Amino acid sequence: MRKLIIEARVNEYMMREQGNPHVPYSPQEIAADAQACREAGAAILHFHARQPDGQPDHAAAAYADTVERVRASSDILVHPTLGYVTLDASGEERLDHILAMAKDPARAPHFAPIDMGSVNVDRYNAQARRFETTNLVYKNSTETLVYFAQNIREAGMKPYLVSWTIGFTRYAGAFLDMGLIDEPAFICFCLTDNTFLGGHPGTLKGLQAHLDFLPADRRVEWTVVNFGGNLFSLAAAIIAQGGHISIGLGDYHYPELGQPTNADLVRRIAEIARELGREVATPAEAKAILAMT
Known about the structure:
Layout: E1 6-9, H1 27-40, E2 44-47, H2 60-73, E3 77-80, H3 91-102, E4 111-115, E5 119-120, E6 124-125, E7 130-131, E8 137-138, H4 142-154, E9 158-163, H5 166-178, E10 185-192, H6 204-212, E11 220-227, H7 232-240, E12 244-247, H8 262-275, H9 283-289
Parallel strand pairs: 1-2, 1-12, 2-3, 4-9, 9-10, 10-11, 11-12
Antiparallel strand pairs: 5-8, 6-7
C-alpha cells in the first residue's frame, strides 16, 4: 500500500483563548511547530501568517519570513494559504505574495491552494439558533481559478485543490479535462462540522459523496480535513481506502485529548496508520507520490 502523506494544519485562524495554548502565531513558533510535526511524521505544513496577538497578517513579508524559517529548519513541504478572509481581493492580490516567494529558493513554497468554487463561511451557533455572521462568502470565480491554475503551474508549484462540496470536486475534474491541472491531482476534501456548515459533514457519507464524484479516468491523490470537527473518527477509514490525512489545531482544538500540540495529533495519526499496515511518507516520498519536481 502507498505511504500515507500527513499534512499538519497548524493554525488557520484559530485563537489560543478558544481552548488550546499551543496554536502557533509568530514565524518562529510556526517554524518550531513545523520541525516538531516533521519529526512526528508530517510531510507537509499548512499555515496562515499571524500577528503577535494572533490576528491574521496578510503582509507578504510575514509569509516570506515564515517560509524562510521553516525551510531553514526542516525539509517539510510548505503550503501557505491564500486567505479566504480577503473576500473581495482580486486573484492577483491573493496570489502575488506566493508568486514572489516562488522566485527565491529559500522562500519558495511547494504548494499553493486553489479552492475550486465559492461557499458561505458564516458560523452557525446551534445553541442560540442563529448565525453569528450573515455575509461572509468565500468567492472564487471560474476566471480566478483559471488564473490560479495557470500561474501556480508556471511558478513551479503543485496546486493543492480544495473541495468543500461535490460541485467543487466536479470542477476539479473539469480542470483536469482542460489540462489546467497536471496529474496526479492533489485534492483535499474539506469536511466541516459544528459551527461550519459550508462543506459536507465529517462523516463517512460526507466523505463518500466526494469519492463518488472523483473522475475515474484521472490520477488523483486525495486527503481529508475536518474543519471545525474531530477527524479521528474517520482516520482509519481514510487510511484504509488509500487517502491521506490533513489535521491540526488550525481546524479543531481536540479538547477530547486535553490540550494536544500539533505534533501530538500528527504522531497519533502516524500510529494509527502503522497499526493498519501503512507507513508514513517522508517529504521526499510525498513529492514522489505527487509527481513533484
